[in-house]
Structure formats: structure tokens, C-alpha cells
Protein 1
Amino acid sequence: MTFAPKTLALSIAFALSFGSSVALAQKAGAVNLKETVKIAWIDPLSGLMAPVGSNQLKSFQFFAEKFSATNPAGVKFEVIGIDNKLSPTESLNALKSALDQGVRYITQGNGSSVAGALIEAVNKHNERNPGKEAIFLNYAAVDPDFTNSKCSYWHFRFDADTSMKMEAMTTFIKDQADVKKVYLLNQNYSHGQQVARFAKENLGRKRSDIQIVGEDLHPLAQVRDFAPYIAKIKAAGADTVITGNWGSDLSLLVKAANEGGYTGKFFTYYTGVTGTPTALGTGGAGRVFQISYAHYNMGGAMQGWMNEFKTKFNDDFYTGSIVAIYSALGEAMAKAKSTDPVKVAAALEGMKFKSFNGDVEMRKTDHQLQQPLFMSVWQKTDAKNAYSPENTGMTLVPVKTFESYISSTPTSCEMKRP
């Protein structure tokens, strides 16, 4: 990728700033624990969602190397990848295997059904095994219950939850006069159900004139042909689709939309994820939107990392929460002067730090990262927005930034601390 002069200057400046801050942290507080911190990554490497899992495992390993060289705690990160086949049962087996090997840090993101099982299992393990506690680092499972009714001291979420993204998305939609008839199409598990629920609640509050003309929930990672759903969307007269679909469930949906001649808008959570850029091609230009804590043209150090990742793997890096996890772990371990999960968890609570997307905070009350969100739109690359996922000649261009205080949502969490 060729940087525009302004983007290149920003990248160099941010990279120098990042390097300087790390150097200062290592000099100022610094500890040199000289320990290896193993992280068990538990997510799909087989089935329809395997391409997403494979990308994210490579991403975790890529940044383990980067942050092993720069973190202020002086630790080395090592990632152990375990295929869970997108199954809660397989995930629990993987968790037990990791814990039996002495791994104290667990990460997962694909599927809130899996995350829910892991949170409960980690809670039980820690209660029964004092001195061998583990922390669950959630990088993409966005069911709001995990930081509300099911909140856990041992769980930290680095993605924005479904309600936060919908708060920002509907704040954007309320000013789009051409959005009048909305169809809700989502995966039939907690995340998809929550997307539909919060969409109806938020639109009802912000744009009561918008009609919900249809709603469907479909099996997760099982549908191979979305043409019947596109036919229903067209028949309902929907000018807009809101979907929390990800992976093959989004790429196959937009493929069917292109083939079926649907010309309405899509408001999504995961347009940038493996497979969807190729499925979109140029067909969704100006019509497909994504709400996320990142996009493909962030600038700064992130742009350099993305370019390096693409050169190394011929693949695109898009799970920015991974960077936030390593940043937070390094700072928390330096502050705690320890890799003990009990001490690290205490250091993570309430931590404020500068991430690739701005100033962020791990909210102490519920362990939900508070961070800026961006609405971006699918369009052709240009000099300012030059990164092209999956070499499509297209990209996600930011059109609106929502600062943390806008996207933040309240919590009902009653945290039980050890």
C-alpha cells in the first residue's frame, strides 16, 4: 500500500510517539519480569467460520511478537491456539486442557454462546482453585449481559458491546432521512437477538417514524444460501437492513444481495471481517456501513502494522482489540510488578491508557472498555483512504466518530470481588 504524504507523516509521528512512550514506561516504572506469559486462544479453526478464526490467531501471534519486544513489564507473550469448532462444549474441554498446562490467561471472541460458557467455567475454576486463578480476555464476544447481569471480576471485554454499537449506529441513522423502512436480519443466538432488540428500542426512541417491516433470526454458521432472505427483504419494501451477522453469515448475505439486485442500505457490525470485502466487491459502494472501534484507514502505528501484516500473511488485520489487550496487559503487569492474574486483574480495573483509536478506559464497575467508535462506509480507495482489504480496490472510509461518552451505555453490574 502507498501512503499519502499526510498519512505517512501521521504514521511516523504516531510510531515515534508509541516507541517513546514505551521507552519512558520501561525506564520510569520499570520492571523486568523476564517471564513468559502464555495466552490460550480458544476459537474456531474449522467449519464455516475457520477463515475468521485463522486470521485472528495469526493476529494474536503477530502482536505477541511485537509487544514482547516493547511492553513495559518486560514479559514475553506466547499464544497457544486451540480449535473449539465454535462449540461451547469443545471450548470447555479446551479451557480445561489449557488450565491443566498452567495457562493463566484465556482469550476468545467468536460467539457469545461460547463466551458465556467460558465466563462461568473460569468463575468456578477460580473459586475452587485459589492460587491458580485465570483471567478471561474477551476480544469480540459482545453480548451486553457479560458486563451487566452476568458480569464477572475475571472477565474483561476489549470490544464494544452490542448496545454500545447500536447506540452509536442509531444516533447516525436518525439523521439519515432516506432510512424509512428497516428489516432486521440476525443470527439466532444471544448476539443476534440483542442486535434486534436494541435496534428496535433505539430506533423507537430516536426515530419513531421508521417502520420495522420485517425481522428474521437464522441459525449461526449454517446457512449457505441467503437468496430466500433477500427475497423477503425486497418483498417487505425495506430500504435498509440492520444486521449483526459476521463471517460467512455476512459475506454470503451480501453476496446474495448483490446477485438478487437488492439496492438498499446495510448497517453492519462486521463488514471488514474476512470474506465480506470480497463478497461485496464494488456492489455495496456508498450503501454498506460498519460501526466499530476501528476501520481500515486508522493511520498512525496501526497503519504500519496493517501493512506489515498484509505483507507477511497476504491477509488483512482487522481485530484491533488484540492491540488493546496487549497494551493493557503490559501496563497492568508493570503496575502490579507481577504476572499473577489476581494482581493483574486489580491493576486492569479502571485502567486508562492511549490505544490506537484514542483514549480508552477499562471501566471498573463492569470491566467494559470505554472507547471511541467509528461509522465507516464502503467505497473506492482514494489518496486519503488507500488501504484495500482483500485487494478489492475498495475500503471502509470513516464518516462519523463517536467519542466514548456518546457510545457508552449504563451497566447494571453488581461486581463481586474476591
Note: The chain has 13 helices and 15 strands.
Protein 2
Amino acid sequence: MVRFFSVDIHLVELSIPLYLIGFAFGQLSGSPISDNYGRKWIGIISMTVFLCASVAILFAQSIEQLWMLRFIQAFGGGFGLVICAAIVRDLYDALIPI
């Protein structure tokens, strides 16, 4: 990636914290939105965002595009993670003894 983008290694490494920040924002915003609008379609949309960003990363031509797409990818992934956990909790809440 360093050779392809012709940048310093530290700029490529910056994609990791950007991913983690995007993942955190996705989790924080995913729960209230899925509570208001339903889990199924929001989950499908979030996984579609994740998939599209993952494919678009293959065609990134600059390090800035890579950063942006990694953030979007993580946002969709964080959204999906929190929605999946909520769906499981909704379906199997009655089976778990308190």
C-alpha cells in the first residue's frame, strides 16, 4: 500500500484508528436509529454500506480515499454489529432467566 499510494507508512497506518473511530460511531448511532425505524431494513442497509465500501476500497486511488472508505466501512460494520446483538436480544430475551 505504501508503494501503491506513494506515501509514508504512518499515513497508511492511520487507516486503523479511523476504522476504530468509525466502528464506534456506527455502534453509537445504530441502536437509536434501529429502535426508531426497525431493525431489519436498517441492518440490511448497514451491511450494504459495509459491502459497498469494502469493494470501493479496492479501487481507491489515494490515501485520502482509503481513509474515507475505511471510515464508511467501519460505520456500516458498527451499525450492523449493534443491530445483530439487538435482534438476538429481542428474539431470545424470554429464554434467558434473570
Note: The chain has a mean pLDDT of 91.
Protein 3
Amino acid sequence: MIKPTTVLGQPAMWLRAPDGAELTVLLHGGQIVSWIPGGDQERLYLSPDAVAGPGRAVRGGIPVIFPQFSQRGPLPRHGFARECAWTWMEGAQRGDVVIGVLRLTDDAATRAIWPHAFEAELSFSFSGLQLDVELAITNTGDTPFDFSAALHTYLLLDDVRRARLGGLYGVRYVDQISGAEQHQEMDPFSFAGEIDRIYVDAKGPLSLATTMGRMGISADGFDDVVVWNPGPTKAAAMPDLPDDDWLRLLCVEAAAIGTPITLAPGQEWVARQGFEV
């Protein structure tokens, strides 16, 4: 079943698989904001104080980061894709699997701050206890361009302090808080407060263990992993996040940051992030 709906006052699409799995995606930002596996519970965090609209980024779900990660460049933080209106292209059920496709292309507003012609396509497929999200970027112009990208996934937890993330042992990371570069020495590892790390060349599967159960996280085409939680101090300063909700979320992001992607005219780049509970 696929039908239009509204989330945060914005157009969205609601999809349901035959086994009861559900997904909701906002057209604003092309952002998946809810995923309930079949017979399971909500697995994505969406802030109760989230806002959506032109020029506004939604706190939660799976924001699409493109064409710049964070403040690593001249563009607004995390680029512009998460603040734009995407176009719903297709929704279909194929056997037990439900798919959806959204698209974003350059326009006068994007070219004013990033003078390149592009097509971004977000596609997803889900059924049962699995979700796959794919991001494809195509250079539709006549000159090459560089970009960074990420799926800034907010996972819902009962208490981040009881969570354990495994699969990053020995991987080099940049600590965005201290600026230091280190290698991951504990696996799995736990969380006690703010964390903001970019794990470089982290291509192995990850596992997240919480009192809600275990989740496997995989990626293809994304070479890096970002692990982020604002901690209590930064959460209290965020107007779109309740003070104590840092306890209820962990961002495990599939990313292409360490080595920016270069696309020649007509060339396409594709990457995906997958989840299984």
C-alpha cells in the first residue's frame, strides 16, 4: 500500500509492505522519517520538536547530505539537499518488497551557490526486517565537479548509554571535537556523552546492540562512517531537540568525506546503506 500523507506540515509518502513493515518519507529533503520493520517497532529517531519547510533541515530520520559534509567547504552546513523539495518519482510493490524513488535536480537556487548541473536520486526498498537506501548522483552538466555526501541516519534508542557499536576496531578516525586522529581501540564501544567522529575507510559491516535488540548496518560505495551524538550540553542548546533526547538517538552515518567524489560530465556515482534487525 502506498499513499500520500503529511508530516510536519509537509507532503510525504507512506508505504506499507505485505508483512506489515512501514516507511514514511518526506518530499522535503527526500528524507525518510520513519521505518517500522514488520512485527517490530520504530527504528528511526525523529525529534518531537523537528520543523520542516524551505531552508529548514529536519532533525531526525535519514537526512541526505549533499554536496558538502558539515562545514568542509563554502556551502551552508551539510549542503542544500536536505533543505530542498524533492520530486516523488515512483512507488511500487514487487513481490514482498516495496520500493520508492525520489529525485532532486539543480535549479536557479542551487546554481546560485553551487554552479553545477546534477541529478540526485534517492531510492529505497524494504520488507520484513530489512531496509536498503541508495543515493545516486549524476553529473548532467558539461564540466566536472567534486562533492561529499552522506546518509545522516538517526537511529532510535532507549538509552544511548546502554548501546554498543561494533565493527570499527583498528579503523582510523578524526575526532571532530578535539581535532585529534586516533585508531579505534575498543570493539564494540559504548557512549557516555557527546561524540563526533569520522571513521575513514571503514568498509566493514557494523553491529549495534541495544536493549531494543541488535541491528546490522552495512554500506557499499560509502567509504567512511560518521558516529555522532550531541551529548547533554549541545542537546540543551538545540531548539529542535528536547534536552534529554540525546539519550534516545545515535547517528551512524554512511559517508563519502575523506576522499571527495569527482564526477566527469555524464558520470554517475552510486552508494547505499542497509539495515537489518
Note: The two ends are 22 Å apart (CA to CA).
